Amino acid sequence: MQAFVWILRFIIVLVLVWFAVKNSQQIDVNGLPGQVWQAPLVFILLVAFVGGMVIGLLAWIPTVVRQRREIGRLRRAAAQLAAMPAPPPIPGTKPSGADIHGI
């Protein structure tokens, strides 16, 4: 399985290198009026990809923070429940855990 993963990674790297070589021509990127940058197409695509990943991760942070806060709150509640003594058994009933299914 490890060999398959490494072969797959190698194929992905080869495809990316081939893509970079095929898209290495210079292009003009127009910014503000009067501003023109020249850069290889593959570099522009890489910058756009990394920018999209950064924006996606920044949008994901509030969800992670909220979930971690909720997990902490639930752990504290579980610890408080575990620390509470068990209620006394009700007279006339079977003790819990013993003979649950009538067997």
Describe what you observe in this structure.
The chain is mainly α. It has a domain at 19-83. The protein is 62% helix and 10% strand. The protein contains two helices and two strands. The protein has helices spanning 2-22, 41-83, and strands at residues 26-30, 36-40. The protein starts with a helix and ends in a 20-residue tail after the last helix.
Helix/strand layout:
Blueprint: H1 2-22, E1 26-30, E2 36-40, H2 41-83
Antiparallel strand pairs: 1-2
Can you tell me the residue ranges where pLDDT is under 50 for at least 5 consecutive residues?
none
Report the principal-axis shape.
elongated
Mean pLDDT, to the nearest integer, reads: 87
Distance between the termini: 47 Å
Order of helices and strands: HEEH
Helix % is: 55-70%
Number of helices: 2
Proportion of residues in β-strands? 5-15%
Helix/sheet category: mainly alpha
Instruction: Please state how the strands of the largest beta sheet are arranged side by side.
Output: 1-2
Tally of strands: 2
Cα radius of gyration in angstroms: 30 Å
